[in-house]
Design goal:
about 425 residues; 14 helices; seven-stranded mixed sheet; five-stranded parallel sheet; about 35% helix
Length: about 425
């Protein structure tokens, strides 16, 4: 059994969220390296399909990564972008929208291989001397007291002052924190993506944008570079598909022929020779294909345990977002930053109770999650639909016509969340 102090912290999940949370807690001097332990069900060498693609880091998330000195370690391996470009089937640019200007938001958008970010975070955590226990299955909370939590890992009892679930969308911790909630729900939309070398396509002109969305009757092809040079491109499409069990989704995701046919069946519906060339390249690299059912979490009753608040969930465990939002990692980083700030506040303001602070944290974060989901549903997902569906939604007034918008999306609501100011203002009200 691990020795427990009221300040010790156990984190379930050693991927981006859990590792970033560890570095945030250490950076704020809330705990030293010997007082924090990460547990993960897998081995670090276990293949994870999501690590075979990249992750978008937007200014709100980059701000946190920069504070934790993570960004300088990956910056040179990221594709940087300021614009979102849309093209038609004649290869003409229909819109070029400024979305992440460095002078406005402090950073350009960064995209990096997910595995690069994970490996860098692991290296930083190891260098700090933090223990990661691999092949460790969380089996439940046994007891919860005002000064700590007793829980079970691989049949043995462990204790910590606080237990935090950063264990993703199928979180085991969530079932303890909020057993009345059903967990993630499928939105009816599925993304399928693969990777191709840039040179594998005969592009119509030399300066063809490497990060763009090609729109046509069959839907949209979304292109995103995965490295600084743009030598490898992610290609994604989305569609509607009926729900399945988790096991059925996993089996379908391993069916490379099904995923290849998903692209191939629409090939001849494209008028664009460029789109056809991209699809041919994707089908020629079917080993890179995987799928991502878009899910969201219904608003949970709580992100922390009712008894003491010493069991907490963060990131996808608390609020899954569709990958089309590009905000999964970034919102997890916002969770981490806000939670760390509030835990620091509690040390200097002992009259504020833990559960009171966590209630404010959840409310603050849920408002952000709701806004992001609404934006992704009404902007990002719609721009990837088949033409007939997009036009129908515009006619019905259910979404905005993006082509009538100015070539600037004011993203300050997303990229400059003002978290520190909101926490400071809340703390002032608690001191009156």
């Amino acid at each position: 059994m691990t020795r427990c102090t009221s300040s010790s912290i156990a984190i379930i999940g050693a991927s981006i969220t859990g590792l970033s949370l560890t570095l945030s807690l250490l950076h704020a001097n809330l705990v030293d390296a010997t007082g924090i332990t990460l547990y993960d069900l897998r081995l670090p060498s276990t293949p994870d399909p999501v690590n075979s693609s990249g992750v978008v880091l937007t200014p709100n998330g980059l701000h946190v990564l920069n504070l934790l000195n993570i960004l300088p370690r990956i910056h040179d391996r990221c594709w940087l972008s300021e614009y979102r470009t849309y093209k038609d089937e004649n290869d003409a640019t229909t819109r070029k929208v400024l979305i992440a200007n460095e002078s406005l938001y402090g950073f350009k958008n960064h995209r990096v291989w997910r595995r690069v970010l994970v490996e860098e975070l692991r290296g930083m955590v190891r260098a700090k001397g933090v223990q990661i226990q691999w092949e460790s299955r969380f089996e439940g909370v046994l007891a919860e007291h005002d000064d700590g939590v007793v829980f079970q890992i691989n049949g043995r009892e462990e204790v910590a002052g606080m237990l935090i679930g950063a264990d993703g969308i199928h979180s085991s911790i969530r079932r303890y924190v909020t057993p009345q909630d059903e967990g993630p729900e499928y939105t009816g939309v599925l993304g399928v993506l693969g990777h191709i070398p840039w040179e594998s396509v005969a592009w119509p002109y030399e300066d063809y944008e490497r990060a763009c969305t090609i729109q046509g009757k069959p839907g949209a092809l979304v292109l995103m570079p995965e490295d600084r040079e743009g030598s490898v491109i992610m290609v994604a499409m989305q569609t509607k598909l009926e729900d399945r069990s988790r096991e059925e989704w996993e089996a379908l995701g391993r069916d490379k022929a099904f995923l290849r046919d998903f692209f191939a069946q629409n090939r001849d519906q494209w008028a664009s020779q460029t789109a056809k060339g991209i699809i041919d390249a994707v089908c020629g690299h079917e080993d890179t294909l995987y799928m991502w059912p878009y899910v969201r979490m219904g608003v949970l009753h709580s992100w922390f345990s009712e008894k003491t608040g010493r069991v907490i969930i963060v990131g996808d465990a608390a609020h899954a977002l569709p990958p089309s939002s590009g905000q999964g990692v970034n919102q997890a980083l916002e969770d981490i930053h806000a939670l760390t700030r509030l835990l620091v506040l509690l040390k200097s303001e002992p009259h504020i109770q833990l559960k009171e602070a966590l209630g404010f944290w959840q409310s603050l974060r849920q408002k952000r999650i709701d806004a992001v989901f609404d934006w992704a549903t009404n902007r990002t997902n719609v721009q990837r639909m088949p033409l007939a569906e997009r036009e129908k939604l515009v006619r019905e007034g259910k979404v905005l016509d993006a082509h009538n918008a100015e070539n600037f999306d004011d993203m300050s609501w997303l990229y400059r969340p003002g978290t520190d100011r909101l926490i400071d203002e809340w703390a002032e009200t608690r001191n009156k």
